[in-house]
Write a structure and sequence with these properties.
The chain is 35% helix and 24% strand. The chain is an alpha/beta fold. A hairpin with a 2-residue loop joins strand 13 and strand 14.
Length: 319
């Protein structure tokens, strides 16, 4: 089926005056991607190509967008109704796998290269699903080599992890500020010990806005300092918010969190705050996101962690 549709798009583009050759098609949880080569590379014009793809979308009554790729001259992504991707399908102990991209490839986070993550998205975008997926991955990957500090101001979203071994669970914002300060002291001690440490420490914050509203200066100072120095001594921050405003995600925080995951936002402005450009407001929600790993931007569908898998991982990691 995907081969036939690709050949139809090839014929349509050629009829519209741009001779192309369909190379291959790839299915993913977000939709299908069709790869093309131009028969005359001198005819490539990005704006012209976008206008032709818009005409194709109108003609076929579907959503199409131009995708830049290194594999061929260009690709067309056809957004379809999302299919559920289960974490159990991609979970393993060799890497931290969070989902699949529009090419159907597994997307992984290497916390040696991306030591800290900033996550943002509106209500219903899939932020909570992503946090559970990350936590299950982290527990599965690090096992006994892990110490977790979970800051959940609402005290409900991540409460099931409170009995995991080597886990500190904090729901009061005042205590959270003290815990962050304690993490700074641990970091300094590790530096004084020549960088030696036994456990990786993951600080997982479910709602940054609640902490910022309580004590902005102290929280920002701790986050920035840990983000700057923690990487070398095994401290990692995973920080999430459903209020991606510049008053919450300041320029100083952004500068120290170059690795980000942006789910659907409610406006272009929020997308710019998190991702430095518009586009996240057009996402479908339910785990549809952009993953920014340095200069690389990956359109990704987050995997859903069902309760049975989550309970299994928590059980084998109980203290």
């Amino acid at each position: 089926m995907i081969q036939e549709i690709g050949e139809v798009y090839e014929y349509n583009l050629t009829q519209l005056g741009l001779p192309v050759k369909f190379v291959r098609g790839v299915e993913s949880p977000l939709g299908d991607t069709y790869y093309f080569n131009l028969l005359d590379i001198s005819r490539y014009n990005k704006n012209y190509l976008k206008s032709l793809i818009e005409k194709l979308a109108i003609h076929h009554h579907c959503y199409l967008e131009l995708v830049e790729t290194r594999e061929t001259h260009f690709a067309i992504f056809e957004k379809k109704q999302q299919s559920t991707l289960l974490l159990s399908q991609i979970l393993n102990q060799r890497s931290i796998n969070i989902g699949k991209d529009i090419n159907g490839r597994v997307v992984s986070i290497d916390f040696n290269k991306a030591p800290h993550l900033l996550i943002a998205g509106a209500t219903g975008s899939g932020k909570s699903v992503l946090l559970h997926t990350l936590l299950v991955n982290i527990l599965n990957y690090y096992g006994n080599r892990l110490q977790t500090i979970i800051i959940d101001p609402k005290g409900t979203e991540l409460v099931m992890y409170r009995n995991v071994r080597n886990t500190t669970f904090v729901s009061e914002t005042n205590k959270a500020i003290n815990v962050l300060a304690q993490c700074e002291r641990i970091m300094d001690d590790r530096y004084r010990n020549g960088g030696y440490y036994h456990h990786e420490i993951f600080i997982v914050i479910d709602e940054l806005a609640d902490l910022m509203l309580t004590s902005r200066f102290e929280v920002e100072q701790s986050l920035v300092r840990i983000a700057q120095k923690g990487r070398a001594v095994g401290l990692h921050i995973v920080c999430a918010t459903q209020s991606p405003r510049c008053t919450i995600i300041s320029g100083l925080v952004k500068a120290n969190f170059p690795y980000r995951i942006c789910l659907k936002t409610t406006s272009v402005r929020e997308s710019v705050v998190v991702f430095d450009k518009g586009s996240c407001e057009k996402l479908q929600g339910n785990g549809d996101c952009y993953v920014k790993l340095g200069l690389e931007e990956i359109h990704t569908q987050i995997a859903y962690c069902d309760k049975s898998l989550e309970n299994h991982i928590i059980t084998i990691n109980k203290g």
